[in-house]
Amino acid sequence: MRFALPALAGAALLALAPVNAAPEPAAAQMAKALEGRTAGEPVKCLNLRDIRSTQIIKGTAILYETNGGVIYVNTPRGGAQSLDKWDVLVTNTHSSQLCSIDVVRLYDTSSRIQTGFVNLGEFVPYRKAKS
User: Fold this and answer.
1) Is the pLDDT of residue 18 over 70?
2) Alpha-carbon distance 109 to 120, whole Å?
3) pLDDT at 6 (0 to 100)
4) What is the pLDDT at residue 22?
5) Which residues pair with 123 in a beta bridge?
6) What is the pTM of this model?
7) What per-residue confidence (pLDDT) applies to 7?
8) Is the pLDDT confidence value at 9 over 90?
9) Is residue 44 part of a domain?
10) What residue numbers bound the domain in which 94 lies?
11) Torsion angles phi and psi, residue 97, rounded to 5
């Protein structure tokens, strides 16, 4: 009987804990990131100094946000299925630009083991719609 009360208290706490939500599908994640933006003409390269952040859409694309607030979507020509939100992107560039001919290696953040690579495609700019 001594153990019944702590066991019941523990069970009650577990019942109140939030259930982990299922991961958001890639299409919904992409739509959310690009909401209120319109696509422009694709470009072959981005200046590295202009890239402010990156976001991986699992198995689909890499989003590059630039200093000007433009989000460039890169749908890799190969290896997109390797993209995972827990990966770190490692690019060996030979200029001050990231281009559609570059290869990006993917490393797992916890194990630091290479998990794959992608061959970049063209960068499609998405700008906020002017009101």
Assistant:
1) no
2) 21
3) 46
4) 57
5) 43, 74
6) 0.79
7) 47
8) no
9) yes
10) 25-128
11) -125, 150
Q: Which residues pair with 71 in a beta bridge?
A: 65, 126
122 assigned to some structural domain: yes
Query: pLDDT category, 51, cuts 50, 70, 90?
Result: very high
Residues 6 or more apart whose Cβ sits within 8 Å of residue 10: none
93 within domain boundaries: yes
DSSP state of 69: S
**Structure tokens that stand for 112 in this block:** 């630091």
Domain count of the chain? 1
Q: Is 115 exposed, middle or buried (0-12, 13-18, 19+ CB in 10 A)?
A: middle
* Mean of pLDDT values over 11-38: 72
Per-residue burial over 8-44, b if 16 or more Cβ lie within 10 Å, else e, is eeeeeeeeeeeeeeeeeebeebbeebeeebeeeeeee
Q: Is residue 20 part of a domain?
A: no
3 state SS of 113: coil
Q: What pLDDT band is residue 33 in, cutting at 50, 70 and 90?
A: very high
Q: Are 38 and 31 in contact (CB under 8 A)?
A: no
